[in-house]
Predict the 3D structure of the following.
Amino acid sequence: MTDLLAARPGSGPRDASVRPDDSTSLVLVAHRGPVRFSKSKDDGRWISHRNAGGLVTALEGIVQEVEQSVRWICAPASDEDRVVARAQPWTRFSLDATGSGTTGSSTSASCRVRMLDIERAAHDDFYNVIANPLLWFVQHELYEQAPPQIGERERRAWHDGYVEVNHCFAAALRDPATVPVGSTVMVHDYHFYLVPGMLRPTRPDLFIQHFTHIPWPRPEAWRVLPAPMRNAIFRGLLGSDIVGFHTAGHVDNFLHGCEDLLGLPVDYDEGAIEFDGRRVVARHYPISINTDALENFAAAPEVAERARELQANRSQRIVLRVDRADPSKNIVRGFEAFAHMLRRHPELRGSVTFLALLQSTRRDVPEYVDYMRAIHDIVDAVNAEFSTAAWRPIDLRLVDDLALAVAAYKTFDVLLVNSVADGMNLVVKEALVVNETGGAVVLSKRAGASDELGSVVVTVDPYDVPEQAEAMYEALSMPEATRRDRLAIAADIVRSNNMQKWLRHQLSDIGIAREPLAT
Ligand code: GDG
């Protein structure tokens, strides 16, 4: 694997004046880094903490997989991070065998992390006005919840925030001291659509891959944005050599967008676009989970402790959801569907509880504050309608507790994943691998994961509340043997399409795509 990314004879730059050197690297670019900093209250020393989250975990997998020099360029997540970013440009971050990170050690897979000192106001416009909510809402097609407002504020935030922060990243990446000659640069997600296009003209020696973790909608959905913004997004991405998405459908939408919105020649058979005298390919790589690491964690004492707590308080059956409190996850409609089921099937009252483990998210974005209020309102209404002295139908917990989530994965009867749209959805993959009780899954047809798992789970349309109610009922009523058979098949699918496969597929394509440069 390693040599695919290293400078090989003939795999180097297109411009003969720049040659790869020994320090050729793999460079990851993501908004979030693997580490954050705080100051000890006792002695004022800086303490580093490992960052959580699906994307960080996936990128840490790359660090372990390639066993070569990896650099990770990210934004500071707090004022403390900004202070550290100013004081020391690079921090070494090590992953031990269990995947937990430490800084400063060199005994295991490690990478060098650079947080860019981004001006706070620009970052605020970039993050809280454009990336979330505008791009997130456009790509998940969430207009019903928040019709897009493209006014002066958004136009200004586009230039002063989104374009500016992308410029800052591209400027840092342009420097060969940051990105050695001949490196491969993997740019992640909707925060950095402009970076490949900004970097390409000055660093033709680099191999650039961009990967989008959220859905790529059909061309019409992009028409919500002013033409200069959407064109800049497509053109920015086309600065890459490979553009990656989770599903074949997202790739297809991207190719159609290039043709319909930009008028570019597209080869649909090859998944390729001619742009600026170059050929850019679009590929799908369905992200997955590290099943070994998850199964080890599921066996940890902290998970066992949470499982005991859950068992002590549970009613007969559990419908579970585990999500960030994000409108794209369709949480309110999930509770409406549960209430609908209790009305249609009163015999279930008192014997099934909806356990909702939600993590609060993006609290600086007004749409998310409103959505959290809507969640509380529907939970109060459903509990007021059905609760008895001995039973409360919805058990809502606003917690950031991965051990509790994994404990709940082990014993749910039904898992509800009804996303309005979801790039992939890792929760469903995790839950299928860990569940021990023959749990059944209700999965949105608009989650990327339904491409792989749709034939062995109960699938639903995310806007159809009665259908979701009946799907939950069907899942609860399924004979145990059927549930166990389906679970075993689904878990096997996830185990064989694991995160290592996601990584190797990309690294292999990067290696292959570099071959023609050997002249
Ligand atoms: C985006 C895309 C795509 C669960 N409880 C806690 C916690 N989790 C972890 C889960 C899982 C992750 O959070 C959620 O991942 P998802 O994939 O379900 O959703 P997004 O956060 O929206 O992720 C998505 C993904 O990127 C990867 O490309 O699949 O479509 O939207 O791993 O285990 N994490 C912490 N505390 C908890 O209580 N820290």
